[in-house]
Specification:
The chain is α+β, with helices and mostly antiparallel strands. The chain has three domains: about 210 residues, P-loop containing nucleotide triphosphate hydrolases (Rossmann fold, 3-Layer(aba) Sandwich); about 80 residues, Beta Barrel (Elongation Factor Tu (Ef-tu), domain 3); about 100 residues, Beta Barrel (Elongation Factor Tu (Ef-tu), domain 3), CATH 2.40.30.10. Helix content is about 20%, strand content about 35%. It is built from seven helices and 22 strands. It has a six-stranded mixed sheet with strand order 2-3-1-4-5-6, sandwiched between helices. A hairpin with a 4-residue loop joins strand 18 and strand 19. The protein is globular, with a radius of gyration of 24 Å. The two termini are about 35 Å apart.
Length: about 400
């Protein structure tokens, strides 16, 4: 059964937590004890209906303030598909949480309040979905019950969003706009009788039917460990362990080792002690090759003929995650795959105003800001552009003195 990953985004009081809670409720994904606890909590709040938003707000501060702060991963399934929802906060001060929560999503569900229409937060949420190249974007125009289920309200918001999407560079995304009421369940699991003018599929049917996007990128495996057993039975054995970040490899394929550039033929692939003919992305394996090549942690195995250009200077987007602003004078540690090397931001091209789509000049980058920068690394990296190979096109920056992760980045 397919596993489909969803990232949700919405502003304060857009009803995101209620929408997720309603999906869980309608798909019978709530245990009896949880349902009873929600009933009691709803009664304590003095309301005469189930407050399904309580299902997703796990932190005390979230429940008390009625907002989402942390990224929560919510699991549910239907007879057709398994789902993992990364429920991310929508506030600008939690932009870093939104990016990390959406980094592996195949679909972004963005909520818009029908009374407010497209607002600054909507621009911000869509910019992140666009930056991360999320294949599908579903816009749920929520709280349609509060605008009397008016078709003209929905059509205006839909047109406004499509105009916004046309202004950003990644136009390959599939965008669907659906009118919903998460409180009453309109157009979530079944078509709404209150909006007979909307004849497309409800949200859950759409989520079940979207094709799982094909994995992008050629074979890449960062080497984690060179295995050389010290015993008589394996005195000549040398294997290279790692997790395949993208692509597929088979016995007999010729691979190149970067940065050395030497090549050899794959003679064996082992997973959990069992030999197999091939392996694909996200599998952790041990690979053996025909020739004795010096390979160690931080090197990368690639199929010969599919090598990326080794570069020491890179253009990248970063989201700054630290309370201390970016300092272009100091150096940082850049972690790419299993390789960790020194790097320096030599120039800030611009800071992106995600609310207005403007590119602003800046001398530094502050927490939760997204910027395009020029990076210089201590030695060339075998990195791909994020658009071509997301798994090999990302990195993090680490403060070498505090060991804090200060930024996540995407190579251009």
């Amino acid at each position: 059964m397919d596993v489909f990953r969803i990232a949700t985004a919405g502003s304060v009081d857009d009803g995101k937590s209620t929408l997720i809670g309603r999906l869980l409720y309608e798909t019978n994904s709530i245990t009896t004890d949880k349902l009873e606890a929600i009933e009691r909590a709803s009664q304590r709040k003095g309301i005469d209906f189930l407050d399904l938003s309580l299902l997703t707000d796990g932190l005390v501060a979230e429940r008390e303030q009625g907002i989402t702060i942390d990224v929560a991963h919510i699991y549910f399934n239907t007879p057709r598909r398994k789902f993992i929802i990364a429920d991310s906060p929508g506030h600008v001060e939690y932009t870093r949480n939104m990016i990390t929560g959406a980094s592996r999503a195949q679909t972004s569900v963005i909520l818009v309040d029908a009374r407010k229409g497209i607002i600054e937060q909507t621009h911000r949420h869509y910019f992140i979905a666009n930056l991360l190249r999320i294949p599908y974007v579903i816009v749920c125009v929520n709280k349609m019950d509060l605008v009397s289920y008016a078709e003209d309200v929905f059509v205006k918001i839909k047109n406004d969003f499509l105009e916004l999407s046309a202004s950003l560079p990644n136009t390959q995304q599939q965008i669907v706009v659906i009118p919903v009421s998460s409180l009453h369940g309109d157009n979530l699991t079944t078509r709404s009788q209150n909006m007979a003018w909307f004849t497309d599929e409800p949200l859950l049917t759409l989520l079940e039917s979207l094709p799982v996007p094909a994995a992008r990128g050629s074979f890449r495996m960062p080497v984690q460990l060179a295995i050389r057993p010290r015993n008589e039975s394996h005195h000549d054995y040398r294997g290279y362990a790692g997790r395949i970040s993208s692509g597929k490899i088979s016995v007999g394929d010729v691979v190149t080792v970067l940065p050395s550039g030497r090549s050899s033929k794959v003679t064996g692939i082992h997973k959990n002690g069992i030999e197999q003919a091939s392996a694909v992305d996200r599998e952790s394996v041990i690979i053996t090759i025909a020739d004795d090549i010096d390979i160690s942690r931080g090197d990368m195995l690639l199929r010969t003929g599919e090598e990326p250009l080794l570069k020491a200077e890179h253009t990248a987007f970063i989201c700054w995650m630290d309370s201390q602003p970016l300092d272009t004078v100091k150096s940082y540690l850049l972690q790419h795959g299993t390789q960790r090397i020194k790097a320096k931001v030599i120039r800030i091209e611009f800071v992106q105003d995600t609310a207005t789509q403007q590119q602003l000049e800046a001398a530094s980058v502050k927490m939760n800001e997204i910027a395009q920068v020029k990076l210089k690394t201590a030695k060339p990296l075998p990195a791909d552009a994020y658009a071509e190979n997301p798994a090999n096109g990302t990195f993090i920056l680490i403060d070498e003195f505090t060991n804090n992760t200060v930024a996540v980045g995407f190579f251009e």
